[in-house]
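Long-time lurker. I teach an intro course on protein structure, and each term I like to show students one example going from raw sequence to a predicted 3D structure in token notation. This year I'd like something fresh instead of my usual example. Would anyone be willing to generate the tokens for the chain below so I can use it in lecture? Attribution to the forum is fine with me.
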Amino acid sequence: MATRVIPPRILKKLRYNTTTKPLNAAHPSISPVIAPPSLFERSPSPVADAVSTTSTTMETANLNLDDAERLFASVSTEKLLRSSAVLHATAVGPMVDLGMWLMKSPVFQTGLPKDLIMAATKETFFSHFCAGEDAAAAGRSISALKEAGLRGMLVYGVEDAHENDGCDRNLKGFLHTVDVSKSLPPSSVSFVIVKITAICPMTLLERMSDLLRWQQKDPSFVLPWKQDSLPIFAESSPLYHTQKRPEPLTPEEESDLQLANQRLLELCQRCEEANMPLLVDAEHTTVQPAIDYFTYSSSIRHNKDDNPIVFGTIQTYLKDAKERLLLTTKAAEKMGVPLGFKLVRGAYMSTESKLAESFGYASPIHNTIQETHNCFNGCSSFLLEKIANGPGSISVVLATHNIESGKLAAAKAYELGVGKVNHKLEFAQLYGMSEALSFGLSNAGFQVSKYMPFGPVDMVMPYLLRRAEENRGLLAASGFDRQLMRKELGRRLKAAMF
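-- Reply from a regular --
Happy to contribute to a lecture. Here you go:
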């Protein structure tokens, strides 16, 4: 939240807008599709009602993740059965391997075999992990989430682009996503997501990252194209990707950079007009410096008056994450720039370790999973304290599937008085994952969003493959949700029979 192929050149060597402004309530709604009652389904009790009656007591900090009936009250039996089946399937390693092989195999890339694979994928993994094939379907999924007391992060499901025409096409998709968010019920969409790798050619991001790293090594190194930004590196940041002084950008590359800047500017302006925060996803360290540069320069330009429009992402499985977070927030405070962060553990463990090893360096990833947990929890605590002590200069999305981290953050928020529906704090999980944690946090009075990609099945296929690869451990460890789902399904069956 992986294994994406590193370029050969490198390998060779939550219910309310997160901003403080209210959303425009005049936008028309798209009504959710209500599934027909299934055999064992009873009328759901809206989770939002439970939230509205939750007082700011110690109960807010104590997540109730044991009451399966309450946690899944808004989930139909039909959907509960399908979710349970998909999670059980993805927890079986050989089955995931087989599915990935089938989707990648040249034999299944054309004709009838491809149609069969796409149809099977659409009815199973796609329908579970994605919001739909188009904007209308995504709108229905978002509206259904809102009925359950959750919000949605709209994700136009494209991955990388390698030339300007592709970047331009992707930009249109992102702009349309902002327009879709405006047509949905107010407050139902918390963020629109953008991947910089989809609106700026990958080779240019690699070149920019090389140049930024060299400037970190040699501060006298001048980058004439560089705009005002915030600290991108810390003393402990990995710089081994750039082994020698890179050549300046060529005139053609500078022209491509100007086009990329214009695309991001247009998207930021559209989000600003819609009062919709734009969250920039993180990538692997090969291109992350350039992504941070785009994010922070845009934050300086668009984040005004205690109202972050542009959010960046910090991956806490990186050893330098906490140090970079501290440097960036300190610099932003001096400049009077409000910041927004999404905090995640990270997604590219195998790739990063192999890349570092190829250069003869230690991995930039924490040596143990516990160190990663400690880093995430420490950064979370730091940001929550900033929210509590600020005049609101920080907004944060705590994107975690880890039960313990969710409990710690909820308790810390309560302790600091940041809890109940604070517009500066949002929890988030992937759509189709960690449902118990999502509903538990929502029941406790926090804003909670689900990361919801949408698009045609063949377009979203790279996303699904990447999720399958990078989330192997998470999928295999989904036993907590599966156990609660079985418990609730058993209870409904028993209630229907007796």
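Some talking points for your students: Strands lie at 151-156, 189-194, 278-280, 310-315, 339-344, 394-399, 425-430, 448-454. The chain has a mean pLDDT of 82.
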